[in-house]
């Protein structure tokens, strides 16, 4: 049996580990031929992967207390051409950058847009700042401020943003991306190694200084059909990262 692949993702206080076999080795989770994934299964897997990447990016770049703003439009200000929505967001971000610079802060962001089967609106994640400083630079409607919270380590937020934009993303009128990041976001650290070991332990010892989030998942890779393991670790004591 060939060695398995270990993928380790580190983002903020969370470490995620995946173990699986490459399908080229012919390792199967059970008897019989591996069925080719249907387009629907591939699309679902891609959506879950997009949610996973968004979650890690949020963890690496934002903290509890940072902003989650919803930018809405007054009915008379809604663009008839949905492709113009992106220009409104770009104008808002230019003004945002000036506000943050005046406060001695660096602007980082992630935004998504939704308009299918609902009034057009944006969700945008920003570093902590007085939201009152931003109200006047969005002239099209209201800004509803919210704040990131520690519970769930931003996973519910990532799931919500992906679900919220599911229909709009398929039209690709505003953006070809599922979610839109600023260029200065830090990337989660990813290490992928092919081990020389043929099997892994289904139960494992949690490293010192960490606690397990949830349970170890032992199952079958949704696309490869090979044995699969997944678990998440939270660092118990972390120093506050610099802005």
Automatic annotation (TrEMBL):
Q: Domain Replication-associated protein ORF2/G2P, which positions?
A: 69-163
Q: What Pfam families would the database entry show?
A: REP_ORF2-G2P
Q: Which domain of life is it from?
A: Bacteria
Upper classification of the organism: Bacteria, Bacillati, Bacillota, Clostridia, Eubacteriales
InterPro entries linked: ORF2/G2P_dom
This one is known as Replication-associated protein ORF2/G2P domain-containing protein
């Amino acid at each position: 049996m060939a060695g398995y692949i270990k993928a380790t993702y580190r983002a903020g206080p969370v470490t995620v580990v995946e173990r699986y076999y490459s399908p080229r080795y012919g390792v199967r989770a059970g008897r019989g031929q591996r069925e080719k994934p249907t387009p629907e299964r591939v699309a679902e897997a891609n959506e879950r992967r997009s949610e996973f990447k968004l979650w890690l990016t949020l963890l690496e770049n934002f903290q509890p207390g940072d902003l989650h703003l919803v930018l809405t439009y007054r009915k008379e200000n809604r663009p008839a051409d949905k492709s113009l929505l992106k220009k409104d967001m770009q104008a808002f971000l230019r003004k945002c950058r000036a506000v943050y610079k005046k406060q001695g802060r660096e602007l980082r962001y992630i935004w998504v847009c939704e308009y299918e089967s609902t009034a057009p609106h944006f969700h945008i994640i920003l570093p902590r700042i007085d939201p009152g400083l931003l109200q006047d630079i969005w002239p099209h409607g209201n800004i509803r401020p919210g704040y990131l919270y520690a519970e769930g380590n931003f996973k519910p937020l990532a799931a919500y943003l992906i679900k919220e934009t599911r229909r709009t993303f398929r039209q690709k009128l505003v953006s070809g991306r599922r979610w839109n990041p600023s260029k200065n976001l830090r990337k989660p650290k990813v290490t992928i190694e092919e081990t020389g070991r043929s099997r892994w332990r289904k139960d494992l010892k949690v490293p010192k200084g960490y606690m397990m989030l949830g349970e170890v998942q032992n199952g079958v890779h949704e696309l490869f059909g090979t044995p699969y393991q997944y678990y998440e670790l939270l660092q118990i004591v972390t120093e506050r990262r610099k802005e």
